[in-house]
Amino acid sequence: xxxxxxxxxxxxxxxxxxxxxxxxxxxxxxxxxxxxxxxxxxxxxxxxxxxxxxxxxxxxxxxxxxxxxxxxxxxxxxxxxxxxxxxxxxxxxxxxxxxxxxxxxxxxxxxxxxxxxxxxxxxxxxxxxxxxxxxxxxxxxxxxxxxxxxxxxxxxxxxxxxxxxxxxxxxxxxxxxxxxxxxxxxxxxxxxxxxxxxxxxxxxxxxxxxxxxxxxxxxxxxxxxxxxxxxxxxxxxxxxxxxxxxxxxxxxxxxxxxxxxxx
Amino acid sequence: xxxxxxxxxxxxxxxxxxxxxxxxxxxxxxxxxxxxxxxxxxxxxxxxxxxxxxxxxxxxxxxxxxxxxxxxxxxxxxxxxxxxxxxxxxxxxxxxxxxxxxxxxxxxxxxxxxxxxxxxxxxxxxxxxxxxxxxxxxxxxxxxxxxxxxxxxxxxxxxxxxxxxxxxxxxxxxxxxxxxxxxxxxxxxxxxxxxxxxxxxxxxxxxxxxxxxxxxxxxxxxxxxxxxxxxxxxxxxxxxxxxxxxxxxxxxxxxxxxxxxxx
Amino acid sequence: xxxxxxxxxxxxxxxxxxxxxxxxxxxxxxxxxxxxxxxxxxxxxxxxxxxxxxxxxxxxxxxxxxxxxxxxxxxxxxxxxxxxxxxxxxxxxxxxxxxxxxxxxxxxxxxxxxxxxxxxxxxxxxxxxxxxxxxxxxxxxxxxxxxxxxxxxxxxxxxxxxxxxxxxxxxxxxxxxxxxxxxxxxxxxxxxxxxxxxxxxxxxxxxxxxxxxxxxxxxxxxxxxxxxxxxxxxxxxxxxxxxxxxxxxxxxxxxxxxxxxxx
Amino acid sequence: xxxxxxxxxxxxxxxxxxxxxxxxxxxxxxxxxxxxxxxxxxxxxxxxxxxxxxxxxxxxxxxxxxxxxxxxxxxxxxxxxxxxxxxxxxxxxxxxxxxxxxxxxxxxxxxxxxxxxxxxxxxxxxxxxxxxxxxxxxxxxxxxxxxxxxxxxxxxxxxxxxxxxxxxxxxxxxxxxxxxxxxxxxxxxxxxxxxxxxxxxxxxxxxxxxxxxxxxxxxxxxxxxxxxxxxxxxxxxxxxxxxxxxxxxxxxxxxxxxxxxxx
Lengths: 263, 263, 263, 263
Known about the structure:
4 copies of one chain form a homotetramer.
Chain A (H helix, E strand, L loop, with lengths): L9 E8 L11 H4 L5 E5 L7 H13 L3 E6 L16 H21 L4 E6 L1 H9 L1 H16 L6 E4 L4 H8 L4 E6 L23 H14 L1 E3 L5 E3 L4 E4 L6 H14 L3 E2 L4
C-alpha cells in the first residue's frame, strides 16, 4: 500500500501483442489488452499484418492502453528469433518502415505510437553489437527529428542499448522482467543456467511489487540488486500468460501501486 | 511557347519509381528522377523495400521531385499485376500500411507523400469493382482525417475510381497516358486491340503537348476527345522509358509548358 | 457391421495437416494424426514450412498415415483462401514446385506423396474455371509422366475438376464432407444458405456411416442422393475437430467399416 | 592443345542461373546458358520462382547443360547474402525442400539435379561453421539415401565444407574461381585485400587454361599453388559476365580442353 501523504507509486505493465499473421495467432490478445497498460505491437516484420495492426490499435485505443512499436528482423518464418546480419543503414530503414506503418494505422485508430521495443533476436543483437544498438537509436532520433513524434525506448537498464540511447538523448523507459532471474550485475540469468526462469506465481507477484515499491530485486545469488523500473514485462506467448498478468495486476493494485500507461 | 499575356500552362510528369526489391531493379530510376516531376514510389507490397523507399525519397527530395504512394496488392511474386480477392476492410488497411511506411521514410528524407496512385491489378480492380475503388478512397479519407496529411488521388478521369473519389471529396489529379490509345469515350483502348499502344516517339510528343495545351486527345477512331489532365504518365518499365521521358520533357518545354510537381 | 460373407467396406479419413508456419500453428496435428488415415499436408504456399513438412511426414510415416499434397495459392497472408489470378502455366509450375518440395521431404521421412488435394481458394477456382482445373490436372500428369510417381486426385465427385481429371486419365478419389449439407445435385449447399453446415455430432456420424455403407447422403431438401466416396474429410481448423474425428472414427469402426489409407 | 595420344583434358564451366524473381532478373541467363556446361539453379529461397525454375531447367535440358541446385538462405530481400542463424536441423530441411522443389521441375523438364552448390552467405557459413557445413552434407546424404538420386557437392577444395563432404563419402567436385586471387594456402584472397579480384580478361583466360591443364594457380604472392579443379565458376551477376564466359570458353577450346557437364 502506498504510504500516506505521498503520491502513489505507479508502473506500466507491457506485453507483446498482435503477434499473429493472417489466419494464425499466438497469444490471447483480447484478454491481455484488458490487463496490461501498454501493448508492444508487432509491425509486420516478425509478425503482424495490416488487419492485426489496426485491430490491435483500435482495441488498445478503446481501453486506454498505450501503443509501442515492437520492431523486429524481417523474418516471419523465424518469428524474429533468428539473428540476421543486416547492414546498419538497412536496419535503420527497416525500423523506420515498421514505425511508419504502425504509426499510420495507430493514427487512424485514434492513438499514437509512444515508444519502441526491439523484439527477439534484434533485441539481443542490440545488447551485444554496437551497430545494431546504434541503428535502433538512430532510427528513433531520425523519426523524432522528422516531426513524426517523440518516441521513448523501452529496454532493460544497464544494457548497451540503454546506454547508447541515454547518451544520444533518447528517453529510456527501464523495463523489469517478472519471470526472469537476475544476476548480481542486474542482467538476466541466461536461460541455460539455473534460476533463469521464475515459475512460482506468488514469487513473481512479490518480485513485481518489490521492484516497483523498493526499486530492487533479489538476484539469483541472493544479493539485493538495485532495479528501478518504469514498466514490467509480461510474456504473452507462454502458457498461463493471462493468468500471470491478472495475478501481477491484482498484486500491484493490492499494494497500492497505480497501473498507468507510459505516455 | 505560351502565349504572351497568359500564365504559362503547366503539367506534372509522373513515373513509377523504386520498383526494385533487394538486389533486383527494373527501371533506370536514377535517370528518370532527373526527368519527371513526380515519382510514384512503390511501398513494399508489389515492389520496394525500406532501403529503396528511403533512397528514392532522398533522391526525389534532393531534386525537387514530388513523392506519391504507389500502392499495390501484396504480391512480390506477381509484381502486383495479378488480381487478388482482398476483403474491402483488409484492402483499406493494406493501403494505410503502405501509406504509413512510405510517409515515415519520406519524412526522414525531408519530403512528404502528396498523392496516391494504385498500381497494376489494384488499379484495374478499382476501375471495375466498387469495393476496391471504395477501399482506396476510404483509406485516403481516413489517412487525412487522422491528421497524416492531405492526399490527392492520381488517376484517369472518367473511371469509377475517379468518380468515387470526387463524390467523397478527395482531390483528384487527372492523369493522361502518353503511349496509349484512347477510345471515343475517353478510356484506354484495351491492349488486345489495335491502336492500344503509341510507339512513334514524335507522335507521343505531339499528343503530350496537345493534351496539355488544348485539353484534347485524338481517339483511335479519329474523333477528338476532351482530355484535360494535370499529370502525364511515363511508363518506367518499358525499354526506352528514359528516352521517352527525355523527349516528352523537351517537347513540352519547347512548347512553353512548365513542368511542375503536383504539390 | 459388415455383412457376413462379404469383404468389409473400407474408407479413408482425411484431414488438412501441417498448416502452421514458423512459430504458428492452427490445428492439433498431433492428435489428428492419431485419428485420420490420410494427411493432406500443406506444402509451404498457403501454410507449412520445411520443418513442419518434415515433422508431419515423419509422424505420418510412423503411424501408417498416408501423405497427400495439399497445394494452394502462394499466399501465407490469406492462408490460401483468397483467389489469385494466376496464369495457367504459372499455376502448373506452382503445383509442381509444391509437389516436388513435399515429395523430397516425404521420401526422407520414409514415405511418399500418393495423392493431391487443392486447398481453399484454389480448390474453389478449380471447380469453377477450366484453366485452374486444367492446370492442376496437367501438373499431375506431368509429374507422373516424369517418373515422379503416380498421384491420385482427391476431390468432390461431380465437380469440373473431377470431370477433367477423369477425362485425362488421372485417378480420382471421391471425397465426402461430413459436416456439410448437400444439394439434390450432389454438390455442397453454399455456406450462405440454411443447411450448409451439420453441427450435430450424432448426425455427422450417421451420415458418415451411411455414405460409406450405402453410398448415399440425404440432401438438404430431403431427397436421397447417390454419393459413393472413398475418403471422408474432417475439417481440421474448426474447434472440435479432434472430437469430430474421434467420434466419426468410432462410429465407422462400430459399423464394421475398415479405416484404410488411400495408398 | 591436348597432347597427341592422350585423352583430351576436360572441365566443366558453371554459373549461377535463374536468379530472378517474378518480374525481376539479374543476369543474362539466356546468353550464359549457351556458354556454360552446368547451371547452378536458384531454388526459390534467395531467388527463383517456379516459372523461372522450370524455364531454366527446360533451356538447360535443351542445350545439354547440367543442372545443379544452388541452395541458399530463405531471404529474397537479402538475395541470400546475409547470414541467418538457422538451427542445424532446420537448415537440413530447408536444403531438402529446395532440392525437392527443383528436382520435380527438373524431372518435368526432362533433366535431373546432379549436384548442389551453396549460395552466398550460406556458402560462407559452411566454410566457417561446422553446423552449417554439416547440415548441407547431411541433406545430401539423406536425399541420396532416400532414393532421390546421387548428388555431388560443388565447392572449393580445402574448405571445411569440402572436408566434411569427403569424410562423409559425398562426391566433391573441386571448383576453381577465374576472377579471384588465391592465397599461398589455396584459399581466396579476401575481397578487402589487394589482389582479390582479377579483372584483366586475358589474365583470367590464362589462369583458366593453366588451372585445367597444369592443375596449378599462381597465388597473389607469386608462389605456385596446386589447384586441381573439375569445374570453373563464371560469376553471372557481374557486368561483363557473358563476355568473360565467352572468352574463357574460347581460350579453353583453343587450348584443346573439352568443355563437359559434370554429370
